[in-house]
């Protein structure tokens, strides 16, 4: 199974999804990318490390059309990626998991951490549900 997680900047949500998918599905081919490259968000690295998953070496990447077209499943994690994702062959299944961008949350560090943890935990639940499909 080959799965591609996409979001706008490949800095938070898609990186977290990639990290969880690699943990739960070590035999699958997993990757993530963005419509743009925004760099890896350090708050995402921090909250994933709380779950024992190290994404600190990940890099923000642009969509690879060949990988996209050869994937079994493409998951978009934001409306921007869903709307701007290149066309795929009919053999590629698409799912949209809409999550807020935790990097846009204003407030204290605790407010931001809470948002990142909420999104992280929501993504993990969706990844776990993939096992039953």
Description of the structure:
Its EC number is 1.20.4.4. This is Arsenate reductase (Thioredoxin). One of its GO terms (molecular function) is arsenate reductase (thioredoxin) activity. InterPro entries: Arsenate_reductase_ArsC, Ptyr_pPase, Ptyr_pPase_sf. With 133 residues, the chain is of the alpha/beta class. It has a single domain, classed as Response regulator (Rossmann fold). Helix content is 40%, strand content 15%. It has five helices and four strands; from the N terminus they run βαβααβαβα. The protein has a four-stranded parallel β-sheet. It is globular and about 45 Å long. The two termini are 12 Å apart. The mean pLDDT is 92.
Task: Kindly list the characteristics that best describe this protein.
single chain, 133 residues, alpha/beta, Rossmann fold, four-stranded parallel β-sheet, 5 helices, 40% helix, globular
Write the layout of secondary structure elements.
Layout: E1 2-7, H1 13-24, E2 29-34, H2 42-49, H3 65-69, E3 73-76, H4 79-84, E4 93-96, H5 109-130
Parallel strand pairs: 1-2, 1-3, 3-4
Mean pLDDT across residues: 92
Counted beta strands: 4
The rounded Rg comes to 14 Å
User: How far apart are the termini?
Assistant: 12 Å
Percent of residues in helices: 25-40%
CATH homologous superfamily label: Response regulator
Structural domain tally: 1
How much strand?
Answer: 15-25%
Low-confidence stretches: none
Number of helices: 5
Order of helices and strands: EHEHHEHEH
Q: What is the topology, as strand order, of the major beta sheet?
A: 2-1-3-4
Molecular shape: globular
Instruction: Give the CATH topology.
Output: Rossmann fold
Secondary structural class: alpha/beta
Architecture, according to CATH? 3-Layer(aba) Sandwich
